[in-house]
Amino acid sequence: MLAPGAAVLRLFNVYGPGQTGPYAGVVSKFIERAKRVLLPVIYGDGTQTRDFIHVADVARFVEVVLDRGAAGIYNVGTSRAVSIRELAAVVMRLAGLSSEPLYGPPRPGDIKHSAAVSKARALGWQPQMPLEEGLRRLWTLTSSLR
User: Which of 109, 10, 12, 19 lies closest to 51, judged by CA?
Assistant: First the structure.
């Protein structure tokens, strides 16, 4: 049971600056490989979907929850399912890679589809960062850090 007045935020696939190492998500892994002029590796057929949300949108939602004293359980995502193939295509386009991604065997236990169904919008919040723009910003930022 949730304590009265408490808010729980269930974050979907958050991406943005600073994600590195073993806990980095697929976005960071694809960009790290592309920076080394390596093709992204997709495990499975690439039709699996995820709901990618930029960390700036998550931060804005946290502000909304705090400002309004909102309570309850909130899924924080864009509600847009993006295939891993589509994600790879955008990263490859940003990197100027013109081949096909590499494919590996599916990972055991990997879920096929994931997208937020969120009541977060009831608080007046909307995600602002389109995926391609967020990826472009991340690509540019990581390029300037090299």
Answer: 12
Q: What is the predicted pLDDT for the residue at 145? A: 60
Average of per-residue pLDDT across 136-140: 95
How far apart, in whole angstroms, are the C-alpha atoms of residue 24 and residue 16? 10
How many other CB atoms sit within 10 Å of the CB of residue 61? 24
Per the structure block, which two tokens stand in for 118? Answer: 């969120």
Q: How many CA atoms lie within 13 A of 93 on its CB side?
A: 10
The average pLDDT across 118-136 equals: 93
Fold topology of 7-134 = Rossmann fold (3.40.50)
- Cα-flanking dihedrals φ and ψ of residue 74, to 5°? -125, 125
In contact, 45 and 81? CB cutoff 8 Å: no
Q: 83 pairs with which residues across the strands?
A: 49
Confidence of residue 146 (pLDDT cuts 50, 70, 90): low
The yes-or-no verdict on residue 68 having pLDDT over 70 is yes
Closest listed residue to residue 61, CA positions, set 1, 3, 14, 23:
14
